[in-house]
Each structure stands twice: as structure tokens, then as C-alpha cells.
Amino acid sequence: MENNFFIKKVILLCLLLSQMNAAEYYKKVVLASFVNETRAEAKFSKLQNIIESKIQKQKEEYPFSVVVRPSGNKYIIAVEPFKSYEEAKKVLSALKSSFPTAFINNNAQVVDNNIEVIQDMTILKVKEEVKEVDKTVVVKEKPELKSEVNKVSNPYSLERMLNELIYTDPEIKERLFQYNSIVEEIDISDAGYYPTVDFIGKLGEKRSEKEQPDDSITKDTYGTSELTLRVVQNLFNGFGTQAAVNRDEARAKAAFNKYIEVAQDKMYRAIEAYIKVIRYKEVLEIAKSNVKIHEETLVKIEDRYEKGFSTLSEVERVKGRLALSKSNYVSETNNLIDAKFNFHKALGRNVDETRLVMPEFNGNIPKSLEHATDIAIHKNPSILVANHDIKVLQESLQYSRKNDYPTLDLELEGSRYNNLNGSSDANEDDLSAMLVLNYNLYSGGAHRAEKQKYISLLNYEYAHKNKLKRDVIEALGLSWSANKMIEEQYKYQLEYRDLTAKTKAAYDEEFQLGRRTLIDLLDVQDEVNNIKIKVIHNSYDLLFSKYRIIDAMGELYQSFGHEFKEDYKKDAVLAYVDQDGDKILNTEDQCDNSATPETNIYGCEGINCIQVNEIKFNTELKDQENQLDTTGIQNLWGVKN
């Protein structure tokens, strides 16, 4: 009997594997994907004739259809099925001009994810049953199926998000390009140490008129040319070149630290967005559980009412609390959606919130606030930018003082003049070497005013740096205090949560015995729900307060292993930019940082924005013939039906 059972299971397993192997050869060309069925159908109606006309020739060779159908949690417009990749490739080539984002996929691997998971689970179930019959039998899973399931459940860590953000965020790249441009200005200023070489060529025709002794006028027209080579080397300009180079080097340092400042700020905002999504995802689960509890309570109270153990007012009371719990659920859903939009702004694309994992804090927080403040004063990027801005103005002031000195240039010039006056012997060569001194004696007070301007700007930067220092000290102090207070508060909230849960259990028993009213039961349920949500919020507030501390210290990016180096690279001219390689320009791409080039027509991986479907609940209310009359109360409070 056992042998027959074993043989049947093995045969079933072989059939499943053979079906899945065959499914791998089931190809399709995906043209577009949508989350909303109505939108998919509408788009299909508009595009069907276009698609059919472009693949009419291929349709005569291969039996395929143009369809719109569900695929997992999406709706796709596709051309299918194809037995070979070559068949699908020919159709894709015909459609590529009108559908540049179309691609070929295996049905078993990508489209029918739900079927794949069910098949995979079936294999695991068969494996367990086979092992019960004979422990020596080992059934191997298809590695392709396992990898696909793992890919769907692949966690997206905070570290991974920040690694992407550093190289793709437009504000960070904006600062990097600005730094690169200022580095080039150093070379512009440095050119003052080198001579200038100019070549001047003149070629043309001259016309002259000469009055003769007999008062007649002789006119003459002749061709002439001039060639000049001039070399000018500045020997002294009041130390202006050196000051200009020092100024631009300080500007480059300031721009580089501004790049770090923006990068750290974007990392900080991204961490906040990442934590918010996880936070509100958990809160939403609590709100959902609260709705379910109130639904169950309503069923029990309605049963008690039918048996005469409860009143109609209690039924209406529970209905009201249930409506409130649903309202709270909708509110928390909105909070999660807001968090997901913030996440999209930070990363440039959407990520399934189920893939996000609780981050582990790896930063080093000093033991004392004084030590942390000292680090912040010396390492906070904003203060470092201010330090280099001061250096820029110091060198700008020095540059303005060059006007107090004369300039001295060495000029070397050689010229050849051909046919100067129209005669054959009117050719001339000139060579000159001259020292040229230029000393401005009066400029209407402009030079003095320029120096005074930089003195005032320098004092402004000193005051600005002092203000930044106070801002950093305040931000760090608030973050430090918040961390300590939240940590202390969190302990008591955990204690309150546990005690409230015990109280709730006791109230449930006492309610059954008639010792507690329904109001007591509903109130304690609200307490349990509220404290659960507070504990979730406080746990994430505690985590985020640690990131706030190291952000104020200027060590946020270092805690994730990032290091910024002044490795200058020349930028290429990019008239049209497609950062994620999905063939949709950044200016039109709704998800300009897609993980794969296989996106829909909006540049997103299956979804171009976060769509909100109608929220439906499973509450089934029993019809009450005798509803509680609250008209008088409504009139009293001015409530209109």
C-alpha cells in the first residue's frame, strides 16, 4: 500500500515538473502593464487596430493573439503565445517603433506569478509526503522557480536605498556638477601665470588719392597684407593671479562640502521616508485588526440583543465605534500613501512596502552631549561650507588689493607688412621687445569701495558661521534630548501596553459575568488599540532620533560606510538624459530611477503612481426593525439627516 502511494506521488511530481518545463517555452511580447483593469481595457481599445496592422504579416506565419488580461496583480496588453524566442523576437521587432518599451517574457517566470507560487508550494507539499514514505528519496526543486520566489520576496534594505540615492538623486548630482564647474575655474585663474600668444593677419585692398603740383589728383588702388605675432607675459600684477587661484580653490572646497551637505541631507530625508513607510504599514495593520475586533464585537452584541441580554442602544453604540474604527483605518491608509509618495520622491521610483525591512542602527553616538557637540562643530558639513566661504572672501579681499600695485608685462611682437604704399619696395619687417608698465592713479574711488565691500562680506560670513554653529548646537541638543526622553518614555509605554492587555482580558471575562458594561469593554479596547499605535510610533521615533543625532554631528553618511572623495572627472555634454536606461527621457519619466529597463509607457515598473482603490470592509450588519430613534438628540445638537 505504501509503495503504491509512493509511486503515485512521484508520478504527480514528474507531471508538475514537465508542465513547468513546457511553460518556460511559452513566450509573450508585453506591450504595457496597468494596475487598473478599466484603464487597461480603455488603452487596449485604442491600440488594438494599430497593433494588428503592424503584425499582420507575422500573424499569417504564427498562431498568436493580441489580448488584455490579468497577470498577477496587474493587467497587461500582450501578444501571445509563442513557442520559441525567435518567433517572439520577430513580432517585437515589428512593434518596437510604436512600443519602444515592449519586451519579451516567459509566461511561467514573470506573468503568472501566482500560478508559479502555487506550483512551487505543491512541489514542497509532495516532497514532505514523499519523505514520510521513504526518507531516502530526495526531490530536487527547479532552481528557476526558487529564484523567482526569492526575487519577489527580496528585501530592500535602507543601505541599498541610500547606495542608489547617492548616485541618482538630482539635487546631489546638481551639486556635483556645480563642484566640477568650479574646479575648471581654478584652471582659468591659473592661466594668469602663463603667456598669451596671439596671431593677427590682415589682407585687403587700399585706395589712396594724392594731389599733384598741378592740382590734379592721382588715384591708386593696390593690395596689401599684414602678419603679426604677439606674445605677452605678465611679470607682476599685484599678486592678483595667486589670490585668484587661492580664491577659486577655496570656492571648490566650499562647493565640495556643499555637495556633501546636500547628500547627507537627502540621505536624512530618505531615512525618514523609509522609516515612515514601515511605521505606517505597521500602524495600518493595527487599525485593520481594530476594525475586525469591532466587527466581532458587533456580531456578539447583536446575538445578545436577539436573545434579550442586551439593548438596542448598545447595538447602536458598537455600530458607532465600528464606524469610527473604519474611519481611523482610512486615515491610516492615507498616512501610508503619503509616506509612499515621500519614498517615491526620495528614490525616484516605488518599492513594494512589504520588501522594506526594519533598519539596524550602526552609528556611534558619544557618551556625552558635550563630546557630540564638539564633533558637530568641527565636522558638520554646513559649518565646513561656512569655513571655506570665509576663505573665499579672504582671498577675494586680497585679489582686490592688486589694484594698489602697477602691472608689468613683457610684450614681444613681430610683424611683416607687404606692399604698404603700393610700391614694390614697400615691404617692411618689425620686431619689438618691450616692458609695459600700467599704474592706475585714480579710479573715482572704485578700488577703495571694492575692498570695503569684501571686508563687510567677510564680517557677514563670520557672523553667519556663528549663527550656523548655534543652529547646529540647538539641533543636536534637541535630538539628544528627544532620544533620551523617548527612550525613557518607551519603557513606560511598554509596561502600560502589557498591563492594558491584561486589563482587556479581565474586562472580557467580567463582561460575560455582567460585572462590566459595554462602555467599559469598548473603552478598554480603544486603550489597547491606542497604546499599540503609540508604542509603534515611539519605537520608530526612538530609532529616528539616533539618526538625527549623527546627522547633526555630520557623520550620517559615514555610519553607512560612504566616503566622499574630491575625484574630479570631466562632465560630458548630455543634451538628452535617460538615467535609468528605460528609453524614456528624465524630463518625461515618472519613475526616473527604475530598477530595470523593462517599464511601462510612463517609465515605471508596472505602476506609474500609487493608486488608491475603494476600501471595502467585511462587516455584515443585521437588519433591525426597531432602530433606536435619535431624532431628538440630533435636533438638540443641530445635526441634519
UniProtKB/TrEMBL annotation:
It comes from the Bacteria. Its main location: membrane. The keyword Signal applies. GO terms for molecular function: efflux transmembrane transporter activity; peptidoglycan binding; porin activity. It is found in: Cell outer membrane. One of its GO terms (cellular component) is efflux pump complex. Pfam families: OEP, SPOR. Residues 1-22 form the signal peptide. Keywords: Cell outer membrane, Membrane, Signal, Transmembrane, Transmembrane beta strand, Transport. Residues 21-113 form the SPOR domain. The keyword Acetylation does not apply. Belongs to the outer membrane factor (OMF) (TC 1.B.17) family. This is SPOR domain-containing protein. It comes from Poseidonibacter parvus.
